[in-house]
Structure to design on (241 residues):
């Protein structure tokens, strides 16, 4: 029996939003107002597609983007936590479910030599076109009214667990580590033996406490963290180390 660790990426593994960090590559490190104001709620991926076109139109190349993205700081204690998980892979399966994209996550994890910690990464597919522009697509289609159009993290988690179950893999406990509003949907899918670990002061923590006030609390346990050192302490208790 193993434990499943599910990580969000932006503001969880890294201490920033990878999609807004890329704006550092733009002329004067900012986007024109018309582009900035073109975002519609629930349609972030399409918005980022327009941002990447703008960067491409301004001659921003893959190498420069990569250099910029690999300067993003990791959240406090996160590199140590991921190193610890990497040493205990016989006990932990570890996945990322993120609204970032495959190119950014790949660059950042490989630069820090952390990509081997994760068994799978579920995020919006991205690639450079023949003309050198970064393009991004929606991860999947879904029917969840609570989630952004491109990604329902509950659906991803459920499909992953079903697939693992077909392979004969079941988990003693799921530990879900995240920060954002779109992490609430998968957290509400967790069972009473599982644990949600929302980052302190971020949207997920606020939404979970709002549910508790409305007397419809989540079924799983909740443990708030501000440094990944606290997550590591919990995992050590879990594996009785």
């Amino acid at each position: 029996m193993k434990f499943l660790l599910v990580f969000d990426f932006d503001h969880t593994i890294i201490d920033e939003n990878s999609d807004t960090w890329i704006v550092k590559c733009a002329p004067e490190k900012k986007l024109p107002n018309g582009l900035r104001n073109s975002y519609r709620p629930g349609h972030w991926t399409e918005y980022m597609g327009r941002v990447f076109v703008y960067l491409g139109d301004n001659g921003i190349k893959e190498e420069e983007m990569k250099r910029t993205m690999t300067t993003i700081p990791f959240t406090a204690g996160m590199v140590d936590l991921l190193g610890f998980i990497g040493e205990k892979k016989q006990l932990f399966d570890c996945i990322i479910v993120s609204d970032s994209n495959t190119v950014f996550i790949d660059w950042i994890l490989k630069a820090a030599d952390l990509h081997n910690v994760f068994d799978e990464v579920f995020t919006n597919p991205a690639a450079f076109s023949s003309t050198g522009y970064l393009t991004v697509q929606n991860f999947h289609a879904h029917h969840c009214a609570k989630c952004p159009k491109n990604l329902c993290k509950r659906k991803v988690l459920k499909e992953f667990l079903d697939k693992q179950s077909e392979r004969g893999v079941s988990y003693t406990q799921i530990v879900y580590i995240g920060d954002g509003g779109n992490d609430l949907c998968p957290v509400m899918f967790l069972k009473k033996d599982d644990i949600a670990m929302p980052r302190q002061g971020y949207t997920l923590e606020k939404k979970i406490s709002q549910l508790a006030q409305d007397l419809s609390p989540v079924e799983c346990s909740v443990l708030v963290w501000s440094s990944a050192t606290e997550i590591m302490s919990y995992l050590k208790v879990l594996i009785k180390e």
